[in-house]
């Protein structure tokens, strides 16, 4: 089970996420819906370890993973556009 407890994140003094808590049980699906700029991508980046929350706890199967390196979390992201390395191409 994935569990987020009181996750908050500010960027440059602007609150992006404030005290978000939820859990997703094994075999269940969760959809993050909302307008542009509401924190959906920030929340996914926090879960995957690409950025850290200011406050709160992330648990994966009852293990706190806040300080776990991203590559050890076994989470992946699929980007809508090729934005991970926009300065690179195949040549």
Index terms:
alpha+beta; Rossmann fold; 91 residues; four-stranded antiparallel β-sheet; 32% strand
Description:
- By secondary structure, this protein is of the alpha+beta class.
- The protein has a single domain, classed as Rossmann fold.
- It contains 2 helices and 4 strands, in the order ββαββα.
- Strand 3 and strand 4 (63-64) form a beta hairpin.
Please name the CATH architecture. Answer: 3-Layer(aba) Sandwich
CATH superfamily caption:
P-loop containing nucleotide triphosphate hydrolases
> Which CATH top level class fits?
Alpha Beta
Number of helices: 2
Query: How many structural domains in the coordinates?
Result: 1
State the total count of DSSP E strands.
4
Write the H/E string, N to C.
EEHEEH
Fold-level CATH name: Rossmann fold
Main structural class: alpha+beta
Alpha-carbon Rg, integer: 14 Å
In which range does the helix fraction lie?
Answer: 10-25%
Please summarize the sheet with the most strands: 4 strands, antiparallel
Strand content: 25-35%
Judging from the principal axes of the Cα atoms, what is the shape? globular
What are the low-pLDDT stretches, counting only 5+ consecutive residues below 50?
Answer: none
Overall pLDDT level: 90
Sequence of strands across the biggest β-sheet: 2-1-3-4
Distance from N terminus to C terminus (CA atoms, Å) equals: 42 Å
């Amino acid at each position: 089970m994935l569990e987020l407890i009181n996750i908050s994140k500010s960027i440059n003094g602007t609150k992006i996420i404030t005290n978000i808590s939820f859990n997703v049980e094994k075999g269940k699906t969760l959809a993050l819906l909302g307008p542009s700029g509401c924190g959906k991508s920030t929340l996914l980046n926090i879960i995957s370890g690409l950025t850290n929350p200011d406050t709160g706890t992330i648990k994966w199967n009852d293990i706190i993973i806040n300080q776990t390196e991203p590559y050890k979390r076994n989470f992946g992201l699929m980007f809508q556009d090729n934005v991970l390395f926009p300065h690179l191409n195949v040549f």
